[in-house]
Description:
Blueprint: H1 3-23, H2 34-95
Amino acid sequence: MSAATALLAAQVALAPLVRAADDKEFDPNDVTPGVWGFVITFAIMVAVVLLVLDMTRRIRRTNYRAEVQQELAREMAEADAAKLEQIAQAEAAASGTPIVDAEPNDAGPNAAGPDATGPDAASGDQTSR
């Protein structure tokens, strides 16, 4: 059956229904959602509100967990740094060499400026004048 034949058959089948619908006068009271329409709309609204509340709760929980993980990582890094400092102090005490603490505002390996001589910590080369 071709598409044109199917379309023609559908037109012929629907023609009496269209004529019957044209004969009746439109009554807006017959075309209302009714009680069931209200119940279904209300149920959908309640479901959406519950989903939004659940989503908010999950986002807050995720944000809180991320903050806790960052705090734990920071505390672990501080503990590792303190442990390494204690090990360095113990090794220095055992070997008899003094411990030299870096300045808090140390600018890095080339802190003395470009005119300084000495090994360049980044490349291992001697700096030139």
